[in-house]
## 1
Amino acid sequence: MDLYTTGTATPMLVYNGDSIRIGGNISYWWENLYPDLESIYNHFVIRDTPYKLGISGQFEPGDEEVEITIELLIDDIDSTLDNTDLFLELMVVEDKIPDAFWSQPAEYHDLRDVARRWITKNPANKFPISITESGQNEVFETSFPILDNWNPANIKIVAMVQMLTDSVGYNPILQSQSTNISQLDPDPDQDGFSYLYDNCTYTYNPDQTDSDEDGAGNVCDPCNGLVNIVGNIDLDAYGIDYQPIIGVNDILALSDILNNTGMPINDCHQVDVLQDGQLNSFDIVILEEMIMAGGE
């Protein structure tokens, strides 16, 4: 879509391929637009998608060309997908291009993720997606040259599952993935499982054990869902099955947290026992009731 022939103001943003925002800010400073863009992001980030993308290939410093392989996998689903007008779109972008002058606030700043090549722009280079069923995969291969004015250290490949329609502003992206061309090894931890099938992509775990079945293997799961449950404030557990221990020690730990004397809360903690969005003495009361009812 040509953003300069839409009959509207510029700049123009089409977020996720189907959400249009037009125009900048009267002061030429984008900071005031962030709340609006944040709401768009929050709208899309919670959406589930059945598609998974993996990017691999071959590139060594000094090479004049990058060979890439994109694997598309359909997750476990109970229905057949409609692949009408569905394509794999590929972009080459360069990050951190230095010495770009921004008129407001009158300072130099790196340009981020500037499109250098649209690999699938021409109809002859399009990659239509044919798979529709759970567990099916499809592999796409191509290559592109490294131009002299590019910095290879900052070159990334962006792959997108996108519906391409004739409607202006409606070409929704159903999945996307990006990777630097220096990170094209499909099995970086060398445990025998490639990117789409490894539950700890960068941590060696050939057994793929995932006790809480949340998609993250035990060796790289920061929040074990068997231990990090409501009431288990001190994250104590026993046995190979990670049975949580909820008892008096948790009351003491929660009391210390409320008094700002206990261990710091991490992202895995579920200390809001009442689950009302607030942390106060009422949570201790509910925790005591849990223990009295046999929580330990």
## 2
Amino acid sequence: MNNVERISVIIPKFKQQLLFLEEREKIFRTNVASTELNDSLAISTTSQSLTTATANSSISVFDIEPSADCLPKSSTNNFTDNQSDGGTIAYQHFPDQYDIPPLPNNLMKDVADGMLIKFGPHYSNRQILIDTVSYDLINKYKLFYPSPKQFDQIGSAIVKFLKLPLTKDNISIWKDALQTKLKRKRSEHSDNTLLQDYRSKYSRLGSGRPVKRRINEIAQRDRYKQMMIIPYNDHIANDIDTKVNQLHDVSQLDTEIKLNLWRQTFPYRREYIRNQTTAEIIQKFPGYSDSVLIFEEIKLLLQIDLAGAIRRQTQIILDKIVSSPAFVTDSAPIRLMKVLCREFGETIQHLLSDNEPSTPYPTLVCIDDTIHVYVDFTSIVSTDSPDDAVALLIAMYTIFELSFDKKSRTVRLLYAALHAETRYLTNSVRVLIKDKNIDIYAEKQHHNQQQQNQTIPISPSNSSTTHENESEPTVQIEIHSSADLPIQDNLLVSNQLIGTTSLSDDRGTNPSASVDTYENSEGVENTSSPQSKFQSQSTS
């Protein structure tokens, strides 16, 4: 039962045969190791007795080395002991001309008939051929890391086997396929001592290829994140330029004045962002270098306290994802980013760097304990707080209406957790959310609870308090009072998406519902939009 021919009657599928042989080898390797351990203990006891009996002799049992003359000459040339695995499994030396191992009859028939289309991408014949060769290299020659010359020999053997022209392109195609397969096999044999030796030798801090910088690219805009701006009247437009100029030096303004000007220039700023580059936006509105104003704009757009949300959700998600201590020296938000990148197999340098960003999408750059947020290789804002840094990183996608990078699953999960929004989740992220029982709608539930707590019923005992609250300025982005302007002019923003029906995931009725793996990403827009909120404020 140690080869394909013997088990073909029981297991007809070739791929399953290879899996069976691989598992069988693990079992027998464990048994051989146990036997060798027992034998070594017996030899050790015997050697101690012999050493005592021959105290005056210089010969010791452990000094005796087997001579190469004791073995057949062919054995010394073709085999080597697997000493690194602690067993007695013999592996052959790689030959000068590699031969493809035996394959199933139906696959051999396809080769003879010239049905090479069945060896193309996503065909089972191609997978069987690569599986067979990789299994042969690992179990017969112990080749987890073939040399470039050996890769050429194997690629040439596959091309000759398929009766294809022996060209460089044909060889490269099969070399790439085999390299990918061996990379996966190395991850499956992570406990192999040979692989551990390679990793300890080459996997050092700072080693490996540097992350490729995408210098000539810009972060793509997402038109579905654009807010519909209701036109304002001429009187407001003439006053906007003056207020924008006042915001050029935000450091000289009082906090309340600064926030008031920021709210009043909100519609003009949103329209400007839609049509300009990142560098032009920062030059026109230096206020984006202030984290307070960025968080205020997120509140105007989405009614979300992003700085508070990141502090509430970070430790909750960490407790559900982390099963063993990891990155314990980092702060909680940075640790969460690293853990998620490890879960999804992403490069942390695309989100967190020590010197310069490698991608035009939002990136954190940590220099001298100060974290800078970059977009399109332009520094936007800086902070000393890791919590605020991660919140600002997520905020950039809303502020500049950016789409997500195709491989940014970590950012997608963080965005979903902070916004209670599942529209941008991929299937792999949904699987992790379901497996780890992460409540994406916890922040929405917290927001609804806060609104309920702030609702005070009107009664004679608190009528004076209610009157005082009504006298306070509650309009967030009005430029004039409701007496000076009609309600249509005060209504500056509506949370409707341009060109399509809005997509959202309002699950306020069931916050604890789990996210289905194959859930449709399209849903009905949340009826509690900023438009209704602004209307209620303006009419008050």
## 3
Amino acid sequence: MLRSVCLGPSILKAYNSRVAVDYLATAVGNIDISSGAKEYALDRNVPGAVMSYHGSETLSLQGRLHTLERANPIPFAKIDSQLCAGTDQLRKVHIFHRHLKGGQHVAFLMEIIRGNSLKEEHVGELLKNGEVTKSEFATFVNKILLEKDLKAQLSNDIPDAVHTEILMTLFQVYCKTIVGDTQERLTSLQTHDINLFVKRFIDEGQLGKAQICLQYIMDKQGLEFVLEKRDVGTIRHFLQLRCGALPKYWKRRLKASNTRISKRKRLGDNSVSCNLSNSYKPLDEKSLLKIMEFLLGETSSQGKYSSSLDATIVYSLGYLGQMQLIDKFLKKKWLVPTSEAVSDETAKPELLIAALSAYCIQNGNMAKGLEILDQFVNKFPNTHLDNVFWRRLIQLSICIGDPNENKKGEISYACWNIMKQWHQGRNISIPYDQGILLQMYDLFKSTKNGKTALDVISTCFQSFYLSPEHLLVPNEVGLLNKYQKLCIRTMALKGNYHKPLKFIKEWSINEGNRKELYDYFITHRKKYDLRQDRIRLHKKLLQKRYDDMEEEDMLLGGLW
């Protein structure tokens, strides 16, 4: 029975390695075997099962087991269970080496989930036996947390799996096995790994789980130690979860254009790429002031300019409505009055976005935000404002203010002109960015501004007319087509005839596009003609009515 269950040829063939054989040999090596039994085993010749055992002594493993089966049948069931367990352990080790060593971290995670092995005792046993090192397990955790489509991969293979619950279980296993029950502080690598859990849960909209992970760090480290070591990752997560530095949860007041009723809506509610928690109530103002004072008191060059951390401070102050503290913080940390610009330093766009968001969303003061932007650009001329910055600027210009007072989009057009001037001043072209162009299209459509839409085509879509047709992306061509039709529609409905035809000739990308635009122009030209006919008919009827009244008045006057 033992040979058929645990030592069949298929098992030894599947694990045709010294590891499997040595393990099975060790499993029965602790049982005392008489010299007669050893001789019996040496005399047997079983192909495929001969190995080195205890130095130079060679014997057949199957022969030894057969001897044990005849000479000592009582403990055989115990041996059988031990060997079967050993074979199962070998299978897990083989899976580990096949998936984890091969970089297939999600496959390894699914394997241990199926085997119900994502537990402290199982992982601890792997670490204790040396089959997995702490470094390898930490690397596995890092790779899983950085996997963008983890939810899709797990749901395809394990339909009932909730990936955030699996990650929470993984966090608990990590704390028990890698960190342990020690009272010592976390190492830098352990802090980094747990901050990855915090970031992942924030991105997933699981703020409760993120708070648990953050609290674990704070219990081990303490805020004073975190500040002393300048642990930027932990400080940022502390500010985000407990001091309001998550702008996607900020609420802005919306007012319908035709009613006096207003409501508050979160900034991230309409974003398809943003997962939001149902509640967000950060209340820790004292810690925020303590962190800000510590950063303002730093004198080292490392803490002089830190855009990411300072941006988080500005978000927190903006959430609390502390605009005067934002001014104080930025002026003391970044905008110290000097006679010369700081040419060797740059302010990253994320800091400028934070300042603009605080003034626009929380204070409703776009002018103050743009004033801060001018000061930064003058002080740090090498600062590069990327597409994300301009996208946020346009978004802020659209969402700020009362729609009744900003029907013509003056603020958004001003931001568009700032964007153009910034690029022209540095002699660089405005790059294509679908997020910016989609927002501007909605603005141009609502204000019926075909002239500026043509300006966008000539500045942002130039690469489309220089690239081969087969390299054009369909959705990008679709956006260009929207702009083309907007220009044609506005020109046609104004009664222009030659301008639309000239536009079609100059700005169509191929023959098919040219025919489509021409048909579109004819359709709207007919609409214009019909509207003019109705207007002429209406004027004619009014004139006839007026003439009839005049004739009637003349008749009545003659009778008098």
